[in-house]
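so i finally got all the pieces together for this one. its two components total, 560 residues if u count the protein bits. some of the lines might not be protein, just check the labels. i wanna see the whole assembly predicted at once instead of chain by chain like last time, that was a mess tbh
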Amino acid sequence: MIQLIDLYKEYKTKKGTVVGVDHVNLTIPKGQIFGIVGYSGAGKSSVLRCINLLEKPTSGQVLVDGVDLISLSKNELRLARQNIGMIFQHFYLISSKTVSENIAFALKAAGKSSSVITERVTELLQLVGLADKADQYPAQLSGGQKQRVGIARALANDPHVLLCDEPTSALDPKTTQSILALLGQINQSLGLTIVLITHEMEVVKDLCHGVAIMQDGRIIEEGAVYDIFANPIQPLTKEFIQTTLEFKLPQKLLDKLDPAGKVVKVLFRDEAAEKAIIADMLKASGIHANILHGKIEYIGEKPLGTFIMEVTGDAAGIDKALKYLESQSCGVEVVTHVN
Amino acid sequence: MSIDTLVELLPDMIKAFKETLFMVGISLLIAIAVGIPIGILLFVSDKGLFSENRLLNTVLGFVANMIRSIPFLILLVLLLPVTDWILGTTIGPAAAAVPLSVAAIPFYARLVESSLREVNKGVIEAAVAVGAKPWLIIKDVLLPEAKSGIISGLTITAISLLGFSAMAGTVGGGGIGDLAIRFGYYRYDNGVLFTTVILLIALVQIIQLIGDWAARRVDKR
């Protein structure tokens, strides 16, 4: 478990003091994959780097498995870091060492004997699917392969926590998927707590259980990923979610719409997404509905449906229909400009 | 000048050549042995690095700059008592190696430091994040990653030392420079002067070639 208590970090620059992390409180339960989302400069990277004290907070506490890292001596901190793996956007492998040697470095750091190291390196190469690349140099690998080496190095000493600093931002979509799948698999099989920072909501949707959205050094919204996607409150959160649940209708279609009707965006959450609510609504109100756009996302196997519909008919009927949708725990939003 | 005089001078030339190699070689070895550790200390004690130590960094940096700001010829003279104290003499290639080493150490240390600065900060940070001891980071990350630059720095140091050794020669150090001055300049023998210059040119080219080859060989980027 990771607890950040009143974490505060300021940077001294020539122009004065800049607050990087502004009194952040965060608890990440054991075994969870937790995403921290924000634009660059929001402080998400600083928060992550405070968890293994690569950056020392100005004030506040960092507890990993109940141990206050800031109170540790230099050597104790070094040992504590062996329980906290970290991977990076740009991998940061030692270019003059082979894949095996890069992984072995982490084990050497933990003072393992050479026979243990050889055995463990083979095991880790298997785990990340790079058994055939053991003697290659990083320059000979693709981005995805380099990140796999990074993951193997981070996992070498059986950490309880894995910190991921934009792990897929330098990778193409296909490689991103394979790295995310690997991280998910590691989380499942090793019960590892994973903290991941990203600016891609897609990554959060596919991988994370919990998420926090950061802006100006503060956490502005936090919760289970499904809840955040289904009920975003802050404008920035909505903005981020729109990047994955985006609906664009062609102008030609909009021009043809009946001016008497309404265009509505309906969100089906939880069980509503699995019931025939639209059919019931039409039957009860006697209006017409035309689906213009829509999709159902599965977030951690729970469906979240979003549909854009044009509803036509008499005004009272439309009103009744929308009220019905709201009563079924659906989010209804009348949109005039869909684009 | 004739071929005869050159042949006559051949034993002197070979002796001078050996002396030059000896004083440059000794001071290079000392530059490696002392300059690399000082270069590492300069780097890792700098702000934001894993063994940050402002006092050590400032003091080392100041001393290195101080020695480097003294013109070599003056350093040579200033160090005469030290040389005498260490070796009991101030004449000969061994004596010349003392000021050469003193000049080479800070020179090479700065080159080592600057090649360490070229090492990706993220790679160092990744090593800190896995909980490696400073010594392991130096040995397994910094030195291998900067190896190519450290070798190039050694090439530059060797060639500079060759130039310095000519000056050391004039105050009794011996070597090719001394030969060129004594025969070529004082005796107006241009033939000897040109021969030594050609010898030095060839030597510098060879050092550079070997240095470049070695630097390329270790580079895995």
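The CA atoms of residues 95 and 210 of chain B lie 27 Å apart.
The mean pLDDT of chain B is 91.
anyway lmk what u think
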